[in-house]
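Quick note —
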Amino acid sequence: MRIAQRLSRARWEPEISLLVAAFLAVWLLLQPALIQGLPFMLRLPAILLGLWALGAAFLRPLALQAPRRRGHRLLSPPWSLVALALFALLLVGRALLA
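Predicted structure written out below.
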């Protein structure tokens, strides 16, 4: 029973989202045209979504130890994981269509 609790998904979720965010950040450094190729009206929301998704994934391991404040809800797993998934889908979709 203890082994199952130690290997629970909630324990590994911050590390997995951190790795996904790091991969997406490196991918954007290597291929910035994925975002630059969008029209300006779509580029700005994509940049804001990327800032939220990548920033939340990088900061969440630090925010778990910080006291709960107003921004904690945006860093919490349901919202930040949805933002990370949407941003990843946006980049994969742009890469497949380009």
